[in-house]
Amino acid sequence: MSRLNYHHLYYFWRVAVIGNLTQAAKTLHVSQSALSAQIRQLEDALDVTLFDRVGRTLVLTETGRRVLVYAQDIFSKGQELESLLRRGQEPALQTLRIGVLSTMSRNFVEAFVSPLMDNPNVRFTLNATHFDNLLNGLGKHQFDLVLSNISATSGTGAGIDGEHLWQSQLLARQPVSIVGPAHLKPDTRFPTGYTDKSWILPGRNSDIRTAFEGFCALVQFEPRVQAETDDMAMLRLLARDSGSLAVLPAVVVRDEIQNGVLVEYMPIPNLYEHFYAITVKRQFVPAIVGELLSRPLQQVLQ
């Protein structure tokens, strides 16, 4: 017979999601000592440690984070089952929580969520923050998926037995180009005609910036940098309003190019920005997430 007590697992799940034992006890209408005791019983039954107790604070262990993934699946499916049995149908309204890297192109995010705008049965939230916060949010099931131009690679979120909690799916990649005002576009081959131009570049920690500087070194060109920023939304505004040349994916300034405010001078050889959807490895994936991830998004961005 299984040693897993689902009542104890439910209490663990609520504490892990809420993040505070005292608050979880109030929500569950049990005493803090009783709640703590039932979590200890779950740990003893499974012979694992789910939380590290640091003073009065409970911090999920790697095993606890892994268990949380399954607990979320178990109880979210239980809620769907209850709805199905009571009303004879799947929940009428699905909620999708999407985390977004704060420096990403808003045009890309808009293209990704566009099918949701026409779906009356889906409500979604977009929360922009830093990469570490996004992964932490995924681990705590605050997000169903994360959109990022950084892949969750080795060293981020390793679970038990060295298995990683995250999986990154490449959604699309976009060439990175030099863009600027139409009247400043040289008629000559780069870098001839570019030496007198000022430039708006991604920040020095950006992969795009590093690759662009490598390209410039190959052709012995040094750009006159006017400004730099890690924020794609700000890079877009500066490219639009400064009169300088900018290095960024054309999708970021798609509207400005269509309106003739900016033109694409040239794509930079072998330089791309990659867009990823990051999810937690799990047994169950919400249907709406699967539909979004299966779309040919590359075509949408053309």
Automatic annotation (TrEMBL):
Classification via PROSITE patterns: HTH_LYSR (PS50931)
Domain of life: Bacteria
InterPro entries: LysR_HTH_N, LysR_subst-bd, WH-like_DNA-bd_sf, WH_DNA-bd_sf
Keywords: DNA-binding, Transcription, Transcription regulation
Listed GO MF terms: DNA-binding transcription factor activity; transcription cis-regulatory region binding
Residues of the signal peptide: none
Gene3D superfamilies: Periplasmic binding protein-like II, Winged helix-like DNA-binding domain superfamily/Winged helix DNA-binding domain
Domain HTH lysR-type: 4-61
Family: Belongs to the LysR transcriptional regulatory family.
UniProt name for this protein: LysR family transcriptional regulator
Source organism per UniProt: Pusillimonas minor
